[in-house]
Design brief:
The chain has two helices and five strands. The protein is α+β, with helices and mostly antiparallel strands. It has one domain: Trna Endonuclease, Chain: A, domain 1 (3-Layer(aba) Sandwich), CATH 3.40.1350.10. Strands 1-2-3-4-5 form a five-stranded mixed β-sheet, sandwiched between helices. Helix 2 links the parallel strand 3 and strand 4.
Length: 123
């Protein structure tokens, strides 16, 4: 699949991430939760744990490691968005900030799912 428009590529990646998570037993609670600090792409729940998911879709051959898309600035903004979501929803259970990186080439996307990517933010 060739998607030249970055917005279309991102939307397709988020749809694929939702499908990926559902197949692994996650229940999608919300998509695109907006705050002044940015958005949380997917909010899902599995086994009583809330997963706040950032999705990045890149074309294969771009980044050496898809986690490089999570710059310090992006992590800072994501953490602030997570805090707003948790306060707004009064969630007081376990939670994980996850990252789904999708590397797309002409044939099949490769999906990487990383959990607890901001673990160092809440020591």
């Amino acid at each position: 699949m060739r998607l030249r428009d970055p917005k279309a590529l991102g939307n397709r990646g988020e749809d694929l991430a939702v499908s990926f998570l559902k197949k692994r037993g996650y229940r999608i609670r919300e998509r695109n939760f907006y705050t002044r600090w940015g958005e949380i792409d997917i909010v899902a729940e599995k086994g009583g744990c809330l997963h706040l998911v950032e999705v990045r879709t890149v074309t294969r051959g771009g980044l050496l490691d898809p986690r490089e898309a999570l710059t310090k600035k992006k992590r800072d903004h994501l953490w602030r968005a997570v805090q707003i979501y948790l306060k707004k929803t009064a969630w007081n259970g376990d939670f994980s900030v996850d990252f789904v990186a999708i590397e797309w080439d002409e044939d099949e996307p490769v999906i990487h799912h990383f959990s607890q990517v901001l673990e160092d933010y809440w020591g």
